[in-house]
Design goal:
Blueprint (H helix, E strand, L loop, with lengths): L1 H39 L15 H8 L1 H34 L5 H9 L6 H14 L6 H25 L3 H9 L4 H12 L1 H17 L2 H6 L6 H11 L4 H28 L1
Helix pairs in contact: 1-12, 2-12, 3-6, 3-9, 6-9, 7-8, 9-12
Subcellular location: Cell membrane
Family: Belongs to the binding-protein-dependent transport system permease family. CysTW subfamily.
Protein name: ABC transporter permease
Length: 267
């Protein structure tokens, strides 16, 4: 009787340990972000106890002219990067998932290679390339540099959606007389639209939060991430955690939208 009773607790103990493990992992991952958010609401110049709630640092971040200038530069980079990365990544995803050609697997490996390259070295290489070719530094080189890194990520995201579309649907449309343009416009692209939008959102978030590549190529332009780095190295201000928290809130919202659309595209 006692042995049977002990065995009945084993599944509950196992489940409890599993959820405890998950809570510890989540706490480990979220502690730095939570610390940043808590510090952004503290009235002190540096985070310390006792905690006194304030929204002053958020107000200073929103009204700061240097922050507004950094936001403007970041938008002028992120929007073109999002458009270019989405177009290039979607074209690459369609080429890989809808066509058979020699070297198809090598194409995938080479296309995805920038994702696995250390960003600081990728930025250094692009900086040397911009110098050698005479392109120089500024908004345009930063757009090109980020597009090289982000396009493969968009290709990966869109490929997931494209692989979920039955090729027989396109064959059926072709048998009914649809030409290639019609198949793309009326069949394939609408079916992978959620994946394309998800890829675009990922591209914007990655471009917005990028530091290493843009710091090498931006020239005299100041973006959000380089502004934060400058404040951290030249004199800390509580506006930094407030601005970083605002970026986190916006990025989290966009990523949730992307995840929801990606899940919907897989159904």
């Amino acid at each position: 009787m006692s042995t049977r009773s002990n065995r009945s607790w084993l599944p509950r103990l196992s489940t409890g340990l599993w959820y405890g493990y998950l809570v510890l992992i989540i706490a480990f991952l979220m502690t730095p972000l939570l610390s940043l958010i808590i510090a952004s609401f503290d009235s002190g110049q540096t985070f310390s106890l006792p905690f006194e709630f304030t929204l002053e640092w958020y107000r200073n971040a929103v009204t700061s002219t240097s922050v507004q200038s950094a936001v403007d530069s970041t938008i002028r980079i992120s929007v073109p990067v999002t458009i270019l990365s989405t177009v290039i990544g979607t074209a690459g995803a369609i080429a890989y998932t809808r066509y058979s050609f020699r070297g198809r697997e090598y194409f995938k490996i080479v296309a995805l290679l920038p994702i696995f390259f250390p960003l600081i070295l990728l930025g250094l290489g692009m900086s040397m390339w911009a110098s050698v070719t005479g392109l120089g530094y500024g908004i345009v080189p930063a757009i090109i540099g980020e597009t090289v890194w982000i396009s493969p990520i968009v290709m990966f995201v869109v490929s997931i959606s494209a692989l979920g579309v039955d090729p027989n649907i396109e064959e059926a449309a072709r048998d009914l007389g649809a030409d290639t343009l019609t198949i793309y416009k009326d069949v394939l692209l609408p079916l992978i639209a959620n994946g394309i939008v998800s890829g675009a959102i990922f591209a914007f978030v990655l471009s917005w939060n990028n530091y290493y590549i843009v710091s090498y190529l931006k020239g005299s332009e100041i973006t959000i991430t380089t502004w934060i780095h400058g404040r951290m190295t030249q004199g800390f201000t509580p506006v930094v955690p407030a601005l970083a928290s605002l970026i986190f809130y916006a990025s989290l919202l966009l990523l949730l939208v992307a995840i929801v659309m990606e899940v919907r595209s897989e159904r």
